[in-house]
Each structure stands twice: as C-alpha cells, then as structure tokens.
Amino acid sequence: MFSARTIAGIRPRMVWKRRGIESRRAKYGYIFALPWMTGLLFFYAYPLLSSIYYSFTKYNVISPVEWVGLNNYKELFNDPLFWTGIKNTLYYALFAVPISVVLGISLALLLNMPIRWRSFFRTVFFIPTLVPVVATAIIWQWLLNPQFGLINHLLETIGIGGPPWLGDPKWSKPSLILMAQWGIGNSVIIYLAGLQDISKDYDDAARVDGASGLRKVWHITLPLLTPVIFFNMIMGIINALQVFTLPYALTYGTGNPANSLLFYSMHLYNNAFLYMKMGYASAMAWILFIVIMTITLLLFRSSSRWVYYHGDQ
Amino acid sequence: MNVIRKKYPIILTYIVLIVAGAVFLLPFIWMVSTSLKPDTQLFVSPPVWIPNPIAWENYYRAVTVVPFFTYMKNTLIVASLATAGAVISTPLTGYSLARIKWKGRELLFIITLAVMMIPSQVTMVPLFIIFSKLDLVGTFLPLILPPCFGVPFFIFLMRQFFKQLPRDLEDAARIDGCSEFGIYFKIMLPLVQPAILTVALFQFMNSWNDFIGPLIYLNDEAKYTLQLGLQQFKQAYNTIWNQLMAASVLVALPIILLYFFVQKSFIQGITFGGVKG
C-alpha cells in the first residue's frame, strides 16, 4: 500500500495522463463500433420504424404503396384465421412452457446428484437440441405415424390403442408439445449451471439443521434457482409465442389438420410471402410485438414477488 | 439403515435417468435403424430394430435423388461467410463497448440489449422489402450480410469477455508505442479466443439450421440450403421413410460431430445468457 503522501504526489499526473489517452482513444471507440452502428440502422432501426408505417398501408412489393389507415387492423379482427392463430399459439404456450420448466428443473436436479457418467447423461439430453428442426419433424412424423409408428406400436403392446397424433385436430397440438420437449436440453444445461452456482454452504447449513432430500430442494435449492427459472421462463414464453419452424416443417405451412397447427407466426408468414400482403403482415407483427412486450413486462413486475436474488449477485 | 437411506435416492436417480435417457435416445436409434432398412422392413409388425440385410443404398439414394451435395455446398457457403462476418464484426463492437470510453457508449450498449427483444417477425417484412429493392432476393446475401455487421447477443458476450481482461496489458503495449489497432489485434483479440470460438460455433450452427431465412429469400432450387432441400425431399417422398431418415442423419450429423469436438464452447455459449448475464 502507498501512503497518502506518495499517492498525492503521483496520482494526479497519472490521472491526467490517462484522461489524455482516453480522450484521444474516444475516436477509436466510434471507429470500432461503426460496423454495428451501421447494422443497427439498416437491419433494426429502419425496419422497425418502417414496419409501423407499412402496417397502415397496402403493399405487395410490386405496385406502389397505398395508405389505408387502420384498415389492416380492422380487417384482422374479422379474419377468422387470425383468431385461430392466436388461440393455437396461446394453447401451445400455456402447456409447452410450464411442462418444459418442470421437466427441465427435474432433469437438472437429477443430473446434479453425485452420480457417475454425469457428462454422458448430460450429452444424452442435450444432443436432440442439435438436430435441425426439419429433421426433427421427419423423425417425429415417423415415430408418431398412426398406423406404422413406433410409439403406437409400443402403446399397443401395453394394451393402449394409440391416438392418431398429428392426423387429428384434437391430438395435433399435444403431439407438437411432446415433440418440443425433446429439445429441452438447452434449458437443462442452463438450470444445471445455475444449480452448480449455488454455494455448498447452503447445503451444509441445511444438513446441520436436519433438512434432507425433497425438503431441502423445495425450501433451499428452488428459491435460490428462481433467477434462472425466471430467465428460462421468459425465453420460453417469447419463443413459444413465436413458434414457427416445427409446425411449418410438419405441415408445409398449411397448419392442417383443420388449421389446428396454424400458429400466429405461420399465418403472418403466409400473408407476407404467400399472398404478398406486406401491410397486413406488418400489422400482425406489431400486434405480436405488443403482446410479447406486455407479457414480458407483467412477468418482470411479478418477479419481485417470487424471484430471489441473493446477495452475491 | 443409514446407508440404505443414503443410497436409496442415488439408486432412484439412476433408474429415472436411465429411463428418461432411453426415451430421449429412442428417436435417434429409430432414425438410424430406419435409415438402414430395406423397403420391405419398413411397415412390418412387430417392428424390425436391426435391419437385415443392412440397406446402405438408402444413403446413396438420399444423396442422388436430390442434389444433396449442391445443397451442402450452398449451406457451407452461407454458413462460413456468415460466420466469418460475425467473427470479425462482433469482437470489434464488444471491444469498443468494453474498453474504450466514448460518448454514447452506454446508450449503444442499452440499444444493443434492447434490440434482442424485437421479434424477428417485426423486421422480417421490411428487410424483405429492402432486399427486394436491392434486387438481392434469390441470392445468399440477405442471409450473409446481417451477421457481418454484428449480432446483438454475440456483441454482449464479447463485451463481457473483454471487460474481464486486466488493464495493465494495454498500458504496457501503449508505452511500447503500439497503435490502437495493434493493441486490439495483437494483444486483446488473442486473449478472447475462447469467446470467439463460441461466437463462430453458434453463428455456424444458426446458419446451418436456419430455415425461415432461406425459405424467405431462396426461390431457386439450385440455391437451396440443406434445410430447404430436406423439406423439399420430405414433401416429394413423404412415405419413403428409410431414405428420409438417411437424409436426416446426413443433415444432423455434422453439427452433432462438431459438438463432440468443442463441447466446452457449446456449454459456455448456452449458459452465458442464463447464468452470467
């Protein structure tokens, strides 16, 4: 440690010198960030603003833009497929997200036990997330094939007549939710990292107090994990509300059977790139954006009541 | 008694993990098994687990009935150029945000975090309009250009890594007369190599697995990427399960192999947002 006097003698000149360097360096700050600022302008700011504008117009890229005021929004409220898309998407999010949270935490808790071959098991649960979505669609369409699929065969051997899965409007969304759980590995890895961040001290304290097993998990581990649960829930809801690729790959964009797999983003995509209704699709995009923002805000609001941020964060 | 009470949860853990693991592996096993079956063993009951004889020709047909290698080449062009772009652009911005003081830096950082919240559906339509006005629809450029200017999440990741580096290094280099670009390229960049590997890996994987991007921008079959090609194959041959599975194996395999080589970078990239962010 320096004494106060030496610091008084040396420090001011150092600080002055550093400030000089900093101000000379400032221009490099701009130079280094210039590509991203350009990208931000072209690929985010301009599209974001022009999308508001397009949502009040009729435009098919070829003929000139035509201002139609609120017509797109009015038309949307009378579009039955818009409502179908909303219903299907909410149904999907309402089931897929809670199931994946419970399943993800359970698997992570098990993988956090002092077991052998932990990295092997971790790999087993993670690898499905690496499979491209179109391949996932193909694999599961075959597994869930009502007549020749492996799953219905296995169900039959234990005396259950398997449902028609993706072929039946009643079973198609549950099938999709089931398929989505195959890709749970990402959130398991995040929960696991969260669990490994929890200090061993809590464990020891719990043992001293005589808490064991499930009680410890419920009263100590889970509360300490709530920030990670919160993160995964927000990401899960945002992704679920935008679900697109898997149902699109399964149905080639049709959303069949009986529009039961027509999700909001699919209807949006079809309007934009199948019917070239750019204005209409932009209006849909803004409604989606506002819904996502509202839900995220509400969740953040609620977080102070159930998310526990411990001191060392 | 005590030993049993202690062992019991562990044994239960193994049982649950083995059963759950089998359920997660089953689709893979079934995919590989189906991909090697002769046509006659596809629709039989009870199902055949180990094909006999092994029909390797499914793989040959999967890559010849559709121009598989053209799709592969297209995918590699898009993925490698997008990856190169992201690897050059995102450390630059991350460095600027972490280690140089300039007016507006905090604002740029907040905006960078904020744009991660914008759903891609919002920017999708205007971006298509821009690219169609530039006459770039049908080329690879709409898929390659955006990451060349920066990707918000990767910038965030790079910034956090640059922030951890000690100050002394650059001071020493500056005293030695090293230029700002020299400090960046010769001293700072080599120190964040693990982060750069993570960015490269995730950009490559995103481009490889991207479906909606190619779906919007590529309309000529000769330009299709693997994902679009696979979708096309699925639509045209929707009951020829053995060939479809062979094609799926071929499309999924490169990324799975990559995982075994750079497992650490994968885990780092995934846990970054959730735990350390």
Which structural category fits the helices and strands of chain B?
A: mainly alpha
Tally of separate helices of chain B: 14
* Average pLDDT taken over every residue of chain A: 90
User: What shape does the CA trace of chain A take?
Assistant: globular
In the CATH scheme, what's the topology name of the largest domain in chain B? MetI-like fold
The coarse silhouette of chain B is globular
Side by side, the strands of the main sheet of chain A go 1-2
Task: List the uncertain runs of chain B.
Answer: none
Q: Report strand % of chain B.
A: under 5%
Q: What is the subunit arrangement here?
A: heterodimer
Mean of the pLDDT scores of chain B?
92
Number of helices of chain A: 13
Domain tally of chain B: 2
**From N to C, what is the helix and strand string of chain A?**
HEEHHHHHHHHHHHH
Gyration radius of chain A, in Å? 26 Å
Using the coordinates above, name the CATH class of the largest domain in chain A.
Mainly Alpha
Largest sheet features of chain B: none
Distance between the termini of chain A: 29 Å
Helix content of chain A: over 70%
Task: Note the main attributes of this structure.
heterodimer; A: 313 residues; mainly alpha; MetI-like fold; 2 domains; two-stranded antiparallel sheet; 2 strands; 1% strand; disordered N terminus; B: 277 residues; 14 helices; 75% helix; globular
